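Tokens as discussed.
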């Protein structure tokens, strides 16, 4: 018997069936319709199956959904602020019938659960956005997901669980509600304050959590969301290593780290209330709620989606009913002359320091110092491993220009120069070479050119992700496709677009391969610049005029550009 608060709604739900029923369901499933779960649906399913979403026993039906959307309560009256629904395509929905069992499968086709279909309906997603997120702006990531990535029909029904989604990373840290409760009981913890986060933790977070635990006389659970968080967030592998590096700074045996497979919605106040319910189910008595808890920050005009303390206000109104204590916290700032962290309001008039996320990125990119007052050295070391300075990161130098512009010629000089410098592996993906080895079945229609460039982009992204230099030299006539490649590569490395802007008359005069003559004669069709379009880029990092510069000089200009952007290291 533990002394922890009961789950939301009174009972920790556990829809995983026993061995006999599992065998029965597996045998029967041969004839059932299947739905392959998308990443966010997998996260939701995991918390439905492990009791983290108690008292939910399945994906919501229409009355629960509408009551949650409009009044933050389930039809039963229990508080619940966020719709948990299974969205499916229209054609899939129209073939479903109430009473029908639906096999829910992971990406590999493993059946994780059976959904006993009760209701299928097309929701009003705009209204859902307005009620749940307080806005219909697609600049809000939760709204963008709802309006652009959610399928137009919802399916509600009770679940029978076959098995939890599998994870192979950090397994000892992935404790389900019942496991965490058992752990607390074993440790003799009666009061536990949870800290929710989607970012690495620095000194300010350390001070805040440590103080919060002391203030309410509780043990601390660091409970980061490692499902889906805000797009662009640091990956959870790095974050978890940062949390592990931080743990030894707390007094021994007062704190525990566990990972929560939650797909966040960034819904601000409603998100905070949801977080409190989920932590209650995990056996926690308190939740730390800081500034702009669960919010996505500001829109592009700098207007915040939620007030900084809206989440605290909403939770304050419901904490009694919920039975989860809120530990509100202001932002903590470092006061230099006291060498200490204090709440923002206490720092008024004193010289305080802070480092923003953007500034931290800048320092990591530049290999600059990260002060000890800002983050513990062990945490900084983890971040540095993941974010080496720019000159150790991978980079893609992507040439574009007409056939005969000089892309291959200059790319080969650049290749030789970079190999001479050493330090990073270099790969040249030349247009003609790629077409021989990677795209041999493709021609020159717009669609085939798109495929060809996306393949190059895929390979270049893999190379840069692993710290290499990828030099690409295709024509790449489409601006939209080039931008797509830029995005793919920039997710994990540098991207430098080089426009070899040789005018078509010059290229045609050179006609090194005799292609222009063939194109003019109509023997070669869809030839770029002659009978197929070329969009000159407006986003090139550097433009090369080959009438002014010879190939060696052009390569030098590109090297100087790489240096300016921080991609060349010290010569040693
Ligand atoms: P692409 O790869 O853009 O199709 P190539 O590099 O294969 O073009 O061909 C360019 C041709 O132009 C080569 O024969 C090269 O010697 C010639 N050329 C003349 N001046 C220059 C210059 N300044 N830079 C690059 N190539 C030049
Ligand atoms: P893209 O970027 O448009 O896919 P590539 O750089 O892969 O183009 O291939 C361009 C090379 O293929 C040219 O330098 C030329 O030698 C040859 N080629 C053959 N047919 C065509 C065509 N219709 N348009 C452009 N280049 C062609």
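Sequence:
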């Amino acid at each position: 018997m533990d002394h922890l608060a009961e789950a939301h709604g009174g009972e920790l739900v556990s829809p995983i069936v026993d061995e006999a029923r599992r065998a029965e369901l597996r045998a029967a499933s041969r004839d059932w319709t299947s739905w392959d779960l998308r990443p966010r649906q997998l996260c939701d399913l995991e918390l439905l199956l492990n009791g983290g979403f108690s008292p939910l026993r399945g994906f919501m039906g229409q009355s629960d959904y509408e009551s949650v959307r409009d009044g933050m309560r389930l039809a039963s009256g229990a508080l619940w602020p966020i719709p948990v629904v299974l969205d499916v395509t229209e054609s899939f929905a129209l073939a479903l019938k109430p009473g029908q069992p639906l096999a829910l499968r992971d990406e590999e086709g493993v059946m994780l659960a059976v959904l006993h279909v009760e209701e299928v309906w097309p929701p009003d997603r705009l209204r859902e956005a307005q009620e749940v997120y307080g806005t219909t702006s697609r600049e809000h990531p939760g709204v963008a997901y709802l309006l652009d990535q959610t399928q137009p029909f919802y399916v509600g029904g009770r679940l029978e669980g076959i098995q939890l989604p599998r994870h192979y990373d950090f397994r000892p840290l992935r404790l389900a509600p019942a496991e965490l409760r058992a752990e607390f009981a074993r440790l003799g913890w009666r009061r536990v304050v949870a800290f929710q986060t989607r970012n690495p933790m620095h000194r300010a977070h350390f001070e805040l959590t440590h103080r919060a635990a002391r203030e309410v006389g509780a043990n601390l659970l660091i409970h980061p969301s490692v499902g889906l968080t805000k797009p662009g967030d640091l990956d959870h592998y790095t974050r978890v290593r940062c949390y592990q590096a931080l743990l030894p700074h707390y007094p021994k045996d007062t704190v525990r780290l566990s990972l929560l497979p939650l797909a966040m919605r960034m819904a601000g106040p409603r998100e905070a209330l949801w977080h409190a319910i989920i932590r209650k189910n995990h056996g926690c008595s308190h939740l730390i709620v800081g500034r702009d808890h669960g919010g996505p920050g500001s829109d592009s005009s700098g207007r915040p989606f939620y007030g900084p303390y809206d989440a605290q206000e909403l939770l304050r109104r419901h904490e009694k009913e919920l039975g989860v204590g809120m530990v509100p916290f202001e932002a903590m700032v470092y006061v230099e002359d006291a060498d200490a962290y204090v709440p923002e309001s206490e720092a008024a008039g004193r010289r305080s320091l802070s480092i923003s996320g953007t500034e931290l990125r800048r320092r990591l990119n530049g290999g600059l110092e990260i002060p000890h007052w800002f983050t513990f050295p062990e945490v900084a070391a983890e971040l540095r491993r993941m974010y080496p300075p720019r000159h150790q990161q991978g980079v893609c130098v992507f040439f574009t220009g007409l056939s005969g512009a000089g892309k291959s010629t200059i790319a080969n000089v650049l290749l030789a120069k970079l190999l001479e410098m050493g330090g990073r592996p270099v790969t040249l993906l030349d247009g003609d070479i790629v077409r021989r080895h990677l795209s041999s079945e493709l021609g020159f229609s717009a669609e085939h050119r798109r495929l060809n460039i996306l393949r190059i982009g895929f390979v270049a992204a893999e190379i840069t992700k692993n710290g290499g230099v990828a030099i690409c030299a295709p024509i790449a006539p489409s601006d939209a496709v080039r931008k797509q490649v830029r995005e793919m590569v920039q997710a994990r490395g540098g991207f430098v677009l080089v426009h070899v802007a040789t005018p078509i008359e010059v290229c045609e005069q050179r006609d090194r391969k005799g292609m222009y003559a063939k194109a003019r004669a109509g023997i070669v069709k869809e030839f770029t610049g002659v009978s197929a379009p070329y969009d000159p880029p407006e986003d090139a990092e550097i433009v090369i005029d080959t009438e002014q510069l010879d190939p060696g000089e052009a390569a030098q200009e590109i090297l100087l550009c790489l240096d300016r952007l921080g991609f060349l290291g010290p010569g040693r």
